[in-house]
Amino acid sequence: MQQLTLPAPAKLNLFLHILGRRVDGYHQLQTLFQFLDLSDEVTITTRDDGKLNLLTPFPGLADSDNLAIKAAKILQSATNSSLGADISIKKCLPMGGGVGGGSSNAATVLHGLNILWQTHLSDTKLAELGLKLGADIPVFIHGHAAWAEGVGEQLTPIELPETWFILVKPNCHISTAKIFQHQDLTRDSDPITVAAYLQRGARNDCEAIVRKQYPEVDKVFKLLNNLAPTRLTGTGACLFATFANRQSAEQALKQLPDDLQTFLARGCNQSMLHKHLQSRTNSI
Ligand SMILES: C[C@](O)(CO)[C@H](O)COP(=O)(O)OP(=O)(O)OC[C@H]1O[C@@H](n2ccc(N)nc2=O)[C@H](O)[C@@H]1O
Ligand SMILES: Nc1ncnc2c1ncn2[C@@H]1O[C@H](COP(=O)(O)OP(=O)(O)OP(=O)(O)O)[C@@H](O)[C@H]1O
């Protein structure tokens, strides 16, 4: 029996443009992913009997629908592994928040089991398997801040300033599918280049609809935007305000009401999972 405990970090979409819609309903995007130093913690213990168990069930979510279990299953069948696993998740990331918690749990399980089961799949292969479960999983598999196109899986690594953020989770849960299906969503943004983004910034095409549909998000947006430039991540519900340094983020945090769910976080170009995996490799 072998055990590994690994982080499953959050991501932000620093901007999100929708360029079009494919025939299968998925949207063609341009987005910029950066990781945060906030994460869930996933502990995986191997089993000899091939069973896959979630030791920390989520209220209202069948274990078989949990992306961590789905990820384990897909790896097991792709590699014909006879081994199983007990998986526990210490959840810190807000669910349905647009920070990719479920996708990140899945990517961490894929990496963790690939080590424990000694299945030796490349990152490219793990990302391919992950993409079958969700568009956000490949960036968590590769673990580097990235300019993304396609449905979010065509990744070009990028170095970005590792600025500070206040992340706020308004008190609502937003379904990604519902926002992508909304009739008022604009799906005709022109493609932009990295250089144009770095010069002028860019918006999140889901933001207007989300603020209109969810007054809680709109209220938090106005509060935060008074303190620093603020944007929605993914399809929400989380909003993030950007600061040049920790001190100014801390100052701003003091001005927000106590009843808001807030997080102070730093942008990371390498994900905490990959920092962890690298330090493991270095110590072997
Ligand atoms: C909003 C983002 O988080 C931005 O990074 C992602 O695009 C969403 O990634 P995700 O949660 O992993 O998405 P999936 O689980 O693959 O899909 C959730 C829902 O969003 C829709 N979806 C997702 C990604 C995409 N490029 N176009 C879509 O229309 C899918 O049709 C599905 O109904
Ligand atoms: N391990 C998991 N952690 C969180 N949610 C999960 C998990 N597995 C499945 N889900 C389901 O996925 C939904 C969205 O979860 P998640 O926290 O990843 O949302 P998100 O941050 O909005 O994701 P994204 O930005 O990728 O759209 C949850 O409401 C839940 O029903």
Automatic annotation (TrEMBL):
Q: Where on this chain does ATP bind? A: 94-104
| First-level EC class | transferase
Q: Ion transport: present as a keyword of the record?
A: no
Tell me one GO molecular function of this protein.
4-(cytidine 5'-diphospho)-2-C-methyl-D-erythritol kinase activity
Domain named GHMP kinase N-terminal: residues? 66-143
Keywords of the record, alphabetical order, are:
ATP-binding, Isoprene biosynthesis, Kinase, Nucleotide-binding, Transferase
Biological or metabolic pathway of the protein: Isoprenoid biosynthesis; isopentenyl diphosphate biosynthesis via DXP pathway; isopentenyl diphosphate from 1-deoxy-D-xylulose 5-phosphate: step 3/6
Identify the InterPro entries for this entry: GHMP_kinase_C_dom, GHMP_kinase_C_sf, GHMP_kinase_N_dom, IspE, Ribosomal_Su5_D2-typ_SF, Ribsml_uS5_D2-typ_fold_subgr
Please name the Pfam families in this protein's record. Answer: GHMP_kinases_C (PF08544), GHMP_kinases_N (PF00288)
Tell me its family. Belongs to the GHMP kinase family. IspE subfamily.
Q: This protein is called what? A: 4-diphosphocytidyl-2-C-methyl-D-erythritol kinase
Q: Which organism is it from?
A: Zooshikella harenae
Mind giving the lineage of the organism this protein is from?
Bacteria, Pseudomonadati, Pseudomonadota, Gammaproteobacteria, Oceanospirillales
